[in-house]
């Protein structure tokens, strides 16, 4: 009985020490992941019990950003996208694809920030602002580059250029090799 009472007191003490900035970052994770689910899944699925499951799935990475939950949420989002396009026949729209990629990246970077911030940490708002500005710059650059490459490729189909696909594959392999080299170098 004493162990239970001590755990309850420890939980109360921890809740009393929670500061605003880490809590807001985690609320941002929840909002971004939930928005990604809403954008990815077909409207027919976003009612009733599945919506409750999606809310719980969006809460998991906010509560445990250092665990497997951010990856789980990203896989659920991608699964919803595949369900909408293949299962429900939703056409692939460039704006929706870019918005979904942006939300996945924002969820990822917010989880990385939340993993670094302790619940009771006093955080300068400038730190969060600089983090979000850098994420916004990455998203803007990626969107511009993605649109340019899609225009060069002719948006797929028979007008696309095979060399753009091969170049994209080479860039992906090169990036993976560079990251592996940097990890071994440490």
Overview of the molecule:
- By secondary structure, the protein is mainly α.
- The chain contains 7 helices and no strands.
- The relative contact order is 0.10.
Ordered list of secondary-structure elements with their pairings:
Layout: H1 2-16, H2 20-40, H3 49-63, H4 69-87, H5 94-116, H6 125-153, H7 162-185
Helix pairs in contact: 2-3, 2-4, 2-5, 3-4, 5-6
Per DSSP E runs of 2 or more residues, the count of β-strands stands at 0
Which regions have little confidence, pLDDT < 50, spanning 5+ residues? none
Helices and strands, in order, run as: HHHHHHH
- Secondary-structure content class: mainly alpha
Domain module count: 2
> Which bin fits the share of residues in helices?
over 70%
- Characterize the overall form: globular
Rg to the nearest angstrom? Answer: 20 Å
Quote the beta fraction.
under 5%
Count helical runs: 7
**Mean pLDDT across every amino acid position:** 85
Major β-sheet annotation = none
| First-residue to last-residue Cα separation | 48 Å
Which tags fit this structure?
186 residues; 0% strand; 7 helices; 2 domains; single chain; globular
In short:
The protein is mostly helical. The protein has helices spanning about 1-15, 20-40, 50-65, 70-85, 95-115, 125-155, 160-185. The chain folds into two domains: about 1-155, no CATH class; about 160-185.
């Amino acid at each position: 009985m004493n162990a239970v009472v001590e755990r309850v007191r420890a939980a109360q003490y921890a809740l009393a020490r929670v500061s605003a900035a880490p809590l807001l970052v985690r609320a941002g994770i929840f909002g971004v992941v939930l928005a990604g689910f809403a954008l990815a899944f077909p409207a027919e699925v976003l009612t009733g019990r599945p919506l409750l499951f999606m809310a719980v799935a969006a809460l998991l990475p906010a509560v445990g950003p250092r665990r497997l939950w951010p990856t789980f949420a990203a896989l659920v989002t991608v699964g919803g996208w595949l369900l909408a396009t293949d299962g429900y026949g939703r056409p692939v729209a460039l704006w929706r694809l870019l918005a979904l990629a942006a939300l996945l990246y924002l969820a990822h970077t917010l989880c990385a920030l939340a993993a670094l911030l302790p619940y009771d940490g006093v955080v300068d708002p400038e730190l969060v602002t600089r983090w979000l500005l850098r994420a916004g710059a990455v998203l803007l650059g990626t969107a511009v580059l993605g649109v340019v490459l899609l225009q060069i490729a002719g948006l797929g189909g028979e007008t696309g250029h095979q060399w753009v696909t091969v170049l994209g594959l080479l860039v992906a392999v090169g990036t993976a090799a560079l990251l592996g080299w940097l990890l071994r170098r440490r």
